[in-house]
Amino acid sequence: MSMWHIAKKDLQILFRDIPGLIYLFLTPILVIAVASFALGGVFGSSPTKKFEIPVVVEDSGQAAKDMVEALKKVEALDLKFMYEENGKEQQMTRDKADELVRDKKAAIIIPKGFSEAVTGGKEATIQIIQNPTDQVIPGVIKNVVSEYISKLSTAIVANQVGTQAVQSFASTVGQQHNLKLDPTPEISKIQEYIKQYTAKPPIKYETKNLESKGSAPTTFDYNVPGYAVMFVLLGATSAASVLLEERENGTLRKLKTLPISSHSILLGKMLSSFITASIQCLVLFAVGYLGFGMNLGGSILGLLLMIVSTAFAATGLSMLLAAFCKTRSQASGVSILLVLAMSALGGSWWPLYIEPVWMQKIAHITLTAWSTGGFSDLLVYGKGLVDILLPAGVLLGMGLLFLTIAIRRFRFE
After folding, report:
1. How big is the chain by its Cα radius of gyration, in Å?
2. Angle at 35 between CA 33 and CA 40, to 5 degrees
3. Packing angle of the helix pair 300-324, 328-346 (nearest 10 deg)
4. Which of 208, 264, 266, 322 sits between 20 and 30 A of 151, alpha carbons compared?
5. What's the rounded Cα separation, in Å, for the pair 134 and 130?
6. Which part of the chain is CATH 3.40.1710?
């Protein structure tokens, strides 16, 4: 038998496994599609995704109006000067902007007296409130503001320098009675004034992070929860393949001969998977804390609740897979498909806000969106136990639903 015959035999086996073939090709296609839709506004030729940015305009002068017009020219920004409350449109305020920054990622405030300061050659300030979980959107706004400030500052410098030059020249002419003048001293004065204004531009922007109860968040505060959820899911769902392997090997049939109910056998398998998933998650967070200085938030109890609820939901999903898949290879393919798709869709790989609105809504049918959202509330925003009861409750409910269906659906033979 030649190597060609061996290859032919293996290929025949592969192509007879229709479910395996589907998952072989469907998994990468689905993940590529999800990623492409999610990042469509960032890369490629698709229309630029607009980010809704609250803008508080407390000044009615021309300089403030010019600043607003400059911002409106940025395709990526959808400026919100009004908000709706109790069915009525109201002018955006600082308090409302602070509230919206959590989801919108940044806000712009043009304070009262801005235009007067600009026209008077005094230092004027534009304020940018940014959400510490994101640097992309605030960065875009900073670039726009900086560009406008640069142009406006240059105009002001030219105005100030020109005014000073004319005043000095008129004074000199008056003193010298129209005698021939040496312009060198005046040029020196102009240069000195230019240095003063270029060293400290009349307009600047200042940034302020959205206030949180905890310390300043780090990169690990954002990344560890997302990837931890993904790997916990991968580990938990692999238990489905192990359970189906035991069914194929006849191990489960032997267990049924013991004085123990079928439900107890399944619950025992789930308990083992749940404990493993919980420990895995704890280890990942411990490494993040001890090795990389990750914040643990202001509520250890809340963190433990999120870990337990995430592990429970992941384990319930694993049992559900075991109940509906016929073979271990099928379970392996489906689990990879589901985990990668949920990770891409639910916020494990990138923030949910960069996805289209319709995808953000769909994302919340996945346990990854609820889990990463709960962890983010604790680690990044410094929220407490009460604030994560909703995501934890949803995860526990998912796990219970999955487990209930799995117990009713699973077959031991």
Report:
1. 31
2. 95
3. 140
4. 208
5. 8
6. 51-209
In the structure encoding, which two tokens stand for residue 394, read together? Answer: 């949803």
Residue whose C-alpha is closest to residue 225's, from 378, 389, 398, 360 = 378
User: How do the pLDDT tens digits run along the chain, 413 residues long?
Assistant: 556 656 666 666 656 666 556 656 665 666 666 656 555 554 444 445 567 888 999 998 887 888 788 778 777 778 889 888 877 888 998 888 887 877 667 888 999 888 888 777 677 888 888 776 665 666 666 676 676 666 655 655 565 666 566 566 656 665 665 655 555 666 566 556 555 544 445 667 777 776 555 455 666 777 788 888 888 888 888 888 888 887 877 777 777 777 777 777 788 888 888 888 899 889 888 888 888 778 887 789 999 999 999 999 999 998 888 888 887 777 777 888 888 888 888 888 877 766 777 788 888 888 898 998 888 888 877 788 888 899 999 999 999 999 899 888 888 77
**Phi/psi zone of residue 411: left (φ > 0), alpha (ψ -120 to 50 degrees), beta?**
beta
Provide the whole-model pTM.
Answer: 0.63
Fold classification of 51-209 is: abc type-2 transporter like fold (3.40.1710)
Continuous segment of H or E residues that includes residue 207: strand 203-209
Distance separating alpha carbons of residues 279 and 311, to the nearest angstrom: 9
Distance (Å, whole) CA 7 – CA 246:
29
User: How far apart are alpha carbons 108 and 62 in whole angstroms?
Assistant: 17
Place of tokens 């192509």: 15
Q: Please list, in sequence order, all residues whose beta carbon lies within 8 angstroms of the beta carbon of residue 113, skipping any fewer than 6 positions away.
A: 59, 124
